[in-house]
């Protein structure tokens, strides 16, 4: 079986999580950045799609990829994940609002892989917004390793 992990990221955290997931799957996995090169899906039995959440919305390349490939994706073993600074009680709501309902109901795994707030990479407006959201002026990074492991187990 061949697996594709397709993701979109703004600053690189989602890519890091996709790479961790690929190692945990322990099989042939291709990783593709949807922001640069949307892949063909014919050769894949499993497709995992993930993206970072900003201002409550997933990256546009993820939304476009899902809508452009909706019928094909419904026929694959499918996993969906998000990355962001969501509070635990908001995660399910963000997952549900980030992907088409048709994909959510057929997906084998849904997950939250943690988030990163790196002030060194942000512009002034982003820093201002994140300070309001997080209540902190410190950069933070939290990979939810247990969530990634659990997700990988469901996708095997």
- What is the element string, with H for helices and E for strands? EHEEEHHEHHEEHEH
Taken as a percent bin, the fraction of beta residues is 25-35%
Unreliable spans are none
Largest sheet descriptor: 6 strands, mixed
Secondary structure class reads: alpha/beta
Q: What is the number of strand segments?
A: 8
> How far is it from the N-terminal to the C-terminal residue, by CA?
10 Å
Fourth-level CATH superfamily: Flavodoxin domain
CATH class: Alpha Beta
Categorize the overall geometry: globular
Q: Look at the structure and give the mean pLDDT.
A: 94
What is the gyration radius calculated from CA atoms? 15 Å
Helix content: 25-40%
CATH-assigned fold name: Rossmann fold
Q: Examine the secondary-structure arrangement and name the CATH architecture.
A: 3-Layer(aba) Sandwich
Number of separate helices: 7
User: How many structurally independent domains?
Assistant: 1
